[in-house]
TrEMBL record:
Domain O-methyltransferase C-terminal: 221-360
Annotated PANTHER family: HYPOTHETICAL O-METHYLTRANSFERASE (EUROFUNG)-RELATED (PTHR43712:SF1), PUTATIVE (AFU_ORTHOLOGUE AFUA_4G14580)-RELATED (PTHR43712)
Keywords: Methyltransferase, S-adenosyl-L-methionine, Transferase
Listed name of the protein: S-adenosyl-L-methionine-dependent methyltransferase
GO molecular-function term, one example from the UniProt record: O-methyltransferase activity
Gene Ontology biological-process annotations: methylation
Record has Ion transport as a keyword: no
Lineage: superkingdom: Eukaryota
Active-site feature positions: 291 (proton acceptor)
Length: 387
């Protein structure tokens, strides 16, 4: 009976659509917690940091790659020599990873990849884990102490949140980032440039070809504000090789200097808190930029952008729009991560509308990405006075 139910669940995990998988996963979590003794509960919580550290080390020694590249189980000794670990040390890490479910242990001293191993064996996901563990992790660990000192209230600003306590700096996270090791900066940029909402491009939800009018070579079609490595611009050029007009990525100095080089993509150092120098672009695109800033900072940033817009200009805000109830744990966690690093937040629809209203902007249309929870949204924003 039990075996049959498990087999049906395994098959469901393969066949079900994303929403059904998520519902089952939530139901299984509830069931798993119902089976826990109080000791199991504390053991689960106290192991979170260790679990992340073990995976993080596994990435450094390329354990997931070694395992994912092999069709058959590997001996501890072979994995140890391939990944440059001492055999006894490797055995302890491997059994720990197996106990957490990141790899399988089909027989004594033998380990093999499972679906989780294969998911981790991806450069973008590894960069994400490195970024969250190495750079974001210290800010998260500083949260309880920060709140104890400053009171249980939203942090006052981007220069006074757990990040500053963790790094003993008075600089905001983005001002401080160039001081991080190149390794950490690279991880951040790889993560950002490989991260797409549910592995989908914004062009999958935004009918760009339909929305773009005839443009000449000197017209500015697309400005990616805070666009990092310029990956969205490159993607746009690749998707529309015949597109006339300028495509520009703007960011601070260090991402612009390290940006991807692609014909027809211009880089421009621009602090988004200063007056937007590119006038009358058809689209000003901001993905995962505004969630890094408080409402006051977003109002300042957008107030510096708005005067550059002409009648045709639209701002495309590509961000999460949280529901008012039962927020998914990854989105709720991202909200507090934003609090820890930037003193900022993820926003609900009414929070977006209110903040934009303060700048004299309104949401013309929302297009949601299909996916795990469906919060990622491209909001088309225009000046209120066009109404
Ligand atoms: C979370 S990343 C998002 C990058 C990119 N838009 C994406 O979705 O992959 C935020 C970006 O905002 C940039 N940024 C931070 N402060 C900025 C400022 N004052 N002016 C312009 N860009 C800024 C950062 O350098 C970083 O590239």
């Amino acid at each position: 009976m039990m075996e049959q139910t498990l087999e049906q669940l395994r098959q469901f995990a393969v066949d079900a659509d994303t929403a059904s998988k998520r519902n089952l996963s939530l139901a299984l979590r509830e069931f798993s917690y119902a089976l826990e003794s109080p000791e199991d509960t504390t053991a689960r919580i106290t192991s979170y940091i260790l679990e992340a550290a073990v995976v993080r080390t596994g990435i450094d020694v390329k354990l997931f790659k070694c395992l994912a590249n092999s069709e058959t189980p590997l001996r501890v000794e072979d994995l140890a020599s391939e990944s440059g670990m001492e055999a006894d040390f490797a055995g302890r890490y491997l059994r720990c990873l197996a106990s957490f479910g990141y790899i399988d242990e089909p027989s004594s001293n033998m380990f093999v990849a499972n679906n989780v191993t294969k998911a981790i064996d991806d450069p973008g996901r590894q960069a994400e884990i490195i970024h969250y563990f190495d750079t974001v992790g210290p800010a998260i660990c500083a949260m309880p102490e920060f709140h104890r000192i400053h009171g249980y209230t939203n942090p006052p600003s981007a220069t006074n949140c757990p990040f500053q306590l963790a790094y003993q700096t008075s600089k905001s996270a983005f001002e401080f980032m160039p001081e991080l090791s190149q390794y950490r900066l690279d991880a951040f940029h790889t993560y950002m440039s490989t991260r797409t909402a549910n592995a989908k491009s914004w062009l999958s939800v935004y009918p760009f070809a339909q929305e773009i009018d005839e443009s000449g070579p000197s017209d500015v079609v697309f400005v990616d504000v805070g666009g990092g490595a310029g990956h969205q611009c490159v993607e746009l050029r690749k998707a529309f090789p015949e597109l006339q007009g300028r495509v520009i990525v703007q960011d601070l100095e260090y991402p612009i200097n390290k940006r991807l080089q692609h014909p027809g993509v211009e880089g421009m150092v621009h602090d988004a808190f200063k007056k937007q120098p590119v006038k009358g672009a058809r689209f000003y695109y901001l993905r995962a930029v505004l969630h890094d800033w408080s409402d006051e900072a977003c109002v300042s940033m957008l107030s510096n952008l708005k005067p550059a817009m002409d009648l045709q200009s639209r701002i495309l805000i590509d961000e999460q729009v949280l529901p008012d109830q039962s927020v998914d744990r990854i989105a709720a966690g991202m909200d507090l991560t934003m609090m820890a690093c930037f003193g900022s937040k993820e926003r609900t629809e009414s929070q977006w509308k209110n903040m934009l209203d303060d700048v004299g902007l309104l949401i013309e249309r929302q297009r949601r990405y299909e996916g795990r929870v469906g919060y990622e949204t491209v909001m088309t924003v225009r000046k209120k006075e066009l109404s």
